[in-house]
Amino acid sequence: MFDNISHRYDFLNNLLSMGIQKGWRKKCVKLLKEKKPKIILDVATGTGDFAIECVVLNPDKIIGIDISEGMMKIGREKLKKKGLDKKIILEDGSAETASYPENNFDAIVIGYGVRNFENLEQGLKNLYKVLKPGGQMVILEFSYPTNPIVKALYTFYFSYITPLIGRIFSKDPRAYSYLTESVKAFPNNEKFVEILNKHGFIKAYYKPLSLGIAAIYYCEK
């Protein structure tokens, strides 16, 4: 499914979010600035936008992993054009199966990918293992607003407008129906913070973005 939409993924992300998502990623990266991470893992990297945003932190290496070779192919072309193909490496892998050494990464970032984990518990358990003690994890994910009016507008947009735009511009309209379904199913806000705490992460909290339509989740090991 993600291979099928890879050629339109960046365009549709910007269209559907009206460009707001770029600012959301910048807010995530700012949370990592103080500790100056040298090795960063970008999980569910897609076409590599989050990894590219992390370059401002001046790390030694960024590794992006994803299960969609189609998405990473677009990402590698993008990195080459930007001259970042030596700094950022994209590899096949998922949160559940990533086989890096224990205590390997200073920071982990995940943009719109944690709700796609095949096994959320196993994925978080494995990420905890490869994160260094004192390391940071920042997750950007769609959420559901708590304000009834905003929630109603958001639900309408996600349930009807998003799939319609997906059908018009994408080879695989299922992807944008899936987007709506996966956001509804994801244990967001306080529920997800509880899950992070359960798996040993500390200092976990979430911060709503743009009236609660998305959220940043922050935690440390």
What attributes characterize this protein structure?
221 residues; alpha/beta; Rossmann fold; seven-stranded mixed β-sheet; 44% helix
How many separate domains make up the residues? 1
CATH architecture: 3-Layer(aba) Sandwich
Distance between the termini: 33 Å
The CATH superfamily label reads Vaccinia Virus protein VP39
SS elements, strand count? 7
Strand order of the largest sheet: 3-2-1-4-5-7-6
Task: Summarize the structure in words.
This protein has 221 residues and is of the alpha/beta class. It has one domain (2-143, 186-220): Vaccinia Virus protein VP39 (Rossmann fold, 3-Layer(aba) Sandwich), CATH 3.40.50. The protein has nine helices and seven strands, in the order αααβαβαββαβαααββ. It has helices spanning 2-5, 9-17, 20-30, 49-53, 69-82, 120-130, 148-169, 174-185, 190-198, and strands spanning 39-43, 61-66, 88-92, 105-111, 131-142, 202-209, 214-220. The protein has a seven-stranded mixed beta sheet, sandwiched between helices. The longest helix is centred in the C-terminal third of the chain and has 22 residues, at 148-169. It is globular, with a radius of gyration of 17 Å. The termini are far apart.
